[in-house]
Amino acid sequence: xxxxxxxxxxxxxxxxxxxxxxxxxxxxxxxxxxxxxxxxxxxxxxxxxxxxxxxxxxxxxxxxxxxxxxxxxxxxxxxxxxxxxxxxxxxxxxxxxxxxxxxxxxxxxxxxxxxxxxxxxxxxxxxxxxxxxxxxxxxxxxxxxxxxxxxxxxxxxxxxxxxxxxxxxxxxxxxxxxxxxxxxxxxxxxxxxxxxxxxxxxxxxxxxxxxxxxxxxxxxxxxxxxxxxxxxxxxxxxxxxxxxxxxxxxxxxxxxxxxxxxxxxxxxxxxxxxxxxxxxxxxxxxxxxxxxxxxxxxxxxxxxxxxxxxxxxxxxxxxxxxxxxxxx
Amino acid sequence: xxxxxxxxxxxxxxxxxxxxxxxxxxxxxxxxxxxxxxxxxxxxxxxxxxxxxxxxxxxxxxxxxxxxxxxxxxxxxxxxxxxxxxxxxxxxxxxxxxxxxxxxxxxxxxxxxxxxxxxxxxxxxxxxxxxxxxxxxxxxxxxxxxxxxxxxxxxxxxxxxxxxxxxxxxxxxxxxxxxxxxxxxxxxxxxxxxxxxxxxxxxxxxxxxxxxxxxxxxxxxxxxxxxxxxxxxxxxxxxxxxxxxxxxxxxxxxxxxxxxxxxxxxxxxxxxxxxxxxxxxxxxxxxxxxxxxxxxxxxxxxxxxxxxxxxxxxxxxxxxxx
Lengths: 328, 322
Prior knowledge:
The complex is a heterodimer. By secondary structure, chain A is an alpha/beta fold. Chain A has a single domain, classed as Rossmann fold, CATH 3.40.50.300. Chain A has 11 helices and 12 strands. Chain A has helices at 55-62, 85-94, 112-123, 129-142, 147-150, 160-173, 193-207, 218-224, 242-247, 252-260, 279-282, and strands at 9-20, 27-38, 44-48, 70-75, 78-79, 95-98, 178-182, 210-215, 227-232, 235-241, 311-314, 318-320. In chain A, helix 4 packs across helix 6 and helix 6 (160-173) runs parallel beside helix 7. The longest helix of chain A has 15 residues, at 193-207. Chain A is globular and about 65 Å long. Chain A starts with 8 loop residues before the first strand and ends in an 8-residue tail after the last strand. Chain B has 10 helices and 12 strands. Chain B is globular. The two termini of chain B are 28 Å apart. At the A-B interface, helix 6, helix 7, helix 8, helix 9 and helix 10 of A face helix 5, helix 6, helix 7, helix 8 and helix 9 of B.
């Protein structure tokens, strides 16, 4: 993305497209996307957008669950798109995942200990039980829990917040360089989200783990994110530092998105009504031009001709894919 | 102020477990006025959904309504026969359930499902005109008349559920987390639809949720629940300007700002065993200001007109938020 040479990047995504179905006529879930996460400093990179924007497709690509139709994903020199099973196993020691549903990630019949036993066994993390127990304790401490608190419990005895922190601890135990966190807080109570976000910041700052933080919640991205990338219908609409982009959004879609976050102030309520156009008009993922045209208040004929490149719109690599910002 | 359309008094709903009753909702009392929207807010397990199941008499075993009264237009719902109560649902009291969009029957056309509600309660099948009129009120296009739920987006399915809720002109609609699974822009459209329908029909609404941001945008008054108890009720303006209960303050603080980076305010969840709540204040185990006096039972008391709080130290702890 920003001036990071290829060799410096830990994760290097180059011109990746993912098309489901026929490559010529199928569904473009992700369109010609590039991103580099640097090796020398850990970052929380937020991927945001609504349902169908391509953010989970990106997560699945980076985790190696699905392969790119075009382009390459390289991690520490490994081509993730063509890696074999053995390579993927060692890849997953470096790239771990935390998923959305803190209920579905557990087998309700097993105690929490089982989650850690499985990861220890699958990755051969410990030589013996004592060492395994120490590693579990260490990982749980990193997320603000202790083994005595939770290991003997069943999932239903824990809150959603605790369950997600345990999932973070499980990922951390593998000592990865990158954690893909796909909506880790969206099913957790608003008041308990901070505890999970705090763990992410701690793992970044103290353990040097980078995050690909996938979310539709912009306020948490603003609070903890370093970079943010906003997707619309498979295309990158805007990118930059999280604070720059959210304080000063440029793409009309991003402006609408940020204006729609409910503000905790009864004196500052939503103004004006917004309408959503008909469903089929919104399915623009195959369009040649800007995908946001059917909803955009600034749309003009040129917008439908070609997808606008990312024009610079502010400091620190703040760029937006909108012809409003084309140089004269 | 006019007489409340719904008067809930000392409503308690418990769930039986082998080791004692879980006090999911205890001694809940509040009024809902005509045309008003009341927000019922609290974290998972605070009893907000259970309280509304009590109001609708939809508590199923091992749960039971232990005590209280629920007066709708002067009639105590808890005293009605099952058949009388069944007639009240949808016609007087409608529910938009949690995850409503997944409550639609995947094998039935949208129009048939709406018509089903109408026919069950009036004996007459709905006319096409009536269904289309409902579509229009919630901003749905005519062309979905013959479609199935899987052909619609989440926001549209949610609006179908709103259309069903208003189909029989109820006086009260209970919306349980009606927008929480939606994208922010769609959430705004659905919230807008609910507000429009409410104003057009003059219906009263109870909105359940855990997002104080959405409450600030949508409701007239807020009731905050913690571990089965209502701990504060106030107008939305007072709640945000002068939250009196320490837990209300925590909930408001938990909404991350979009204008200023702040240190994260971390709180845990409900900590006590719901079968065995602490003596006295329900929040004392998590309260940063708990003292000896908090071991006494905390009754709801009015600290200014329209603002009630269950905290003995409310006056000294009250905070002026700008």
